[in-house]
Fold:
Amino acid sequence: AQKITQTQPGMFVQEKEAVTLDCTYDTSDPSYGLFWYKQPSSGEMIFLIYQGSYDQQNATEGRYSLNFQKARKSANLVISASQLGDSAMYFCAMRGARAGNNRKLIWGLGTSLAVNP
Amino acid sequence: DTEVTQTPKHLVMGMTNKKSLKCEQHMGHRAMYWYKQKAKKPPELMFVYSYEKLSINESVPSRFSPECPNSSLLNLHLHALQPEDSALYLCASSQQGPNYGYTFGSGTRLTVV
Structure:
């Protein structure tokens, strides 16, 4: 069975500092994708960053980077230079390659991030 | 066009009403999804359409009825809902395969009174 675990229900960070949001996963699929989404209080689910299971390098997108440690099955999101607008729920998700798994995103419970001025 | 458009953004309906949620995408994605989300929880998958055919129904009550008229449109018909059905309803689309995430609409906040 596939599973995503986010162990930090809530996090606080000071503006302009970096923060790491934890995500571990479990899957028997040899090929899979890992995703992070941001959901502000407005409700829209915003795609942030993607990491493929065969990617050799960690993904980066602007201030977002993904610390991918395949052997540990972890895919932590690092936000550098936090901004007030980064306050939101953050979800880690995974998609497998096998039939059935291919059609579903498996979600973690999310981490609520608050950026303090 | 890299957007998924959902209408309406807000909806209040009585338990005897019939209403529909609409979702549209023009990215050529052949998979479309309906999710239900309660506050501070991850989205819960309701339905998956693949190539305009219903491929997954996650044991959703029949008061929710999905429809995919064509490859760009996805509807969710609502009838005789309960107050506990009040939630954020998200539509999403994607390409097939593990390398592709979902593109989400901005959601419909539904309140059942």
